[in-house]
Design a protein that fits this description.
By secondary structure, this protein is α/β, with parallel strands linked by helices. Helix content is about 35%, strand content about 15%. Helix 1 runs parallel beside helix 12. The structure holds 1,4-dihydronicotinamide adenine dinucleotide (NAI) and 3-hydroxypyruvic acid. 3-hydroxypyruvic acid binds next to loops.
């Protein structure tokens, strides 16, 4: 008998077919009755974003593997999965370059006020050459402070160094001598980075250590001309403090791809600020990259269900 798998986000048709040749795959949303009907007998789950916690796992006693279609896995309770002998996998690497493109694009758009000026043109306000009050800020030759010099952080820093001749400061759990050599990057304390960067970019995973990492104290340490970019997870930043820092002009502007609650509350003050560029969590959202993520997630799931080590296993569990 083929193992039962719950597919709780849409995956491309051909990958669904591949999955179906190994498993009995049921596409159903976590809000549906069908999802909870299949949960007690499911051996595998594949999807993204949905919280897999103790409560859900209690309803899935047969589960062997959870295949997350994202690199970030803060939605998974890894400790609980490991305790129960359930494999957890994610999709690193295949989205690194695309996400770095998005985050560097967000940085440029924020510095050069592109969304605001796009609205200005479309509103028919462009009647003469724009003047000082609408000027942006240079990016080239400025200092980028990267918090989290992992795969994506490094790819953003590469764009900054090679493409824009930026000076790179970074703060990370461990030093990265290769980045220091290749990008002439300097490893500094968090406070030094905050005080000396023109652009502060956050690319750490959301963990108990990084939750609320950036708040009032950190915004106050930044330059008044600093541009803050968050491409990691919303909960790394105290959003109320970010709103206050933007309102009080503690920093110049922010570019955000992620929020504490997603989708963001339409009433959020961030949505009324021209000096805050807001994207709908699109770091990896190109057709090619989303396909590669789904492909890797399917491969992880199939390998795990066949008793092999999945290519991107997160926890130390093999069944
Ligand atoms: N906006 C989007 O659409 C996307 C967001 N992401 C987010 O980006 C995160 C990073 O992804 P990758 O670069 O692939 O992960 P990675 O694991 O390669 O890099 C994370 C880096 O953060 C560092 N780090 C962890 N805790 C830290 C701490 N407390 N202080 C300083 N540094 C710390 C690690 O040492 C590592 O170098 C993901 O976990 C995810 O949350 C990832 C992809 C797309
Ligand atoms: O992969 C991730 O962690 C994302 O945020 C979406 O690609």
């Amino acid at each position: 008998m083929k193992p039962k798998v719950i597919v709780y986000n849409r995956i491309p048709e051909d990958l669904m077919e591949k999955l179906s040749s190994f498993c009995d795959a049921y596409q159903c949303s976590p809000e549906s009755e069908e999802f909870f009907h299949h949960l007690p007998t499911a051996k595998g789950m594949i999807g993204s974003g949905y919280t897999i916690d103790e409560n859900l796992l209690d309803k899935a006693p047969e589960l062997k593997i959870v295949s997350n279609v994202s690199v970030g896995y803060n939605n998974l309770n890894i400790e609980e999965l490991t305790k129960r002998g359930i494999m957890a996998t994610n999709t690193p690497d295949v989205l690194t370059e695309t996400t770095a493109d998005t985050i560097f694009g967000l940085l440029l758009a924020t510095a050069r006020r592109m969304p605001e000026l796009d609205r200005y043109v479309k509103a028919g306000k462009w009647e003469a050459s724009i003047t000082e009050e609408l000027f942006g800020n240079d990016v080239h030759h400025k200092t980028l402070g990267m918090i989290g010099m992992g795969r994506i952080g490094a790819a953003v820093a590469e764009r900054a160094h090679f493409g824009f001749k930026m000076n790179i400061l970074y703060h990370n759990r461990t030093r990265k001598p290769s980045m220091e050599n290749r990008l002439d990057a300097s490893y500094v304390s968090l406070d030094h980075l905050l005080q000396n960067s023109d652009f502060v970019c956050v690319m750490v995973p959301l963990t108990p250590e990084t939750a609320n990492l950036i708040g009032e104290r950190e915004f106050k340490l930044m330059k008044k001309s600093a541009i803050f970019i968050n491409g990691s997870r919303g909960k790394v930043v105290k959003e109320e403090d970010l709103i206050k820092a933007l309102e009080d002009k503690e920093i110049l502007a922010a570019g955000l791809d992620v929020y504490r609650e997603e989708p963001i509350d339409p009433e959020s003050p961030l949505l009324r600020m021209d000096h805050c560029v807001t994207l709908p969590h699109i770091g990896s959202a190109t057709a090619e990259t989303r396909y590669k993520m789904a492909e890797l997630a399917v491969e992880n799931l199939i390998q795990g269900l066949q008793g092999n080590k999945p290519p991107s296993l997160i926890n130390d569990v093999i069944v």
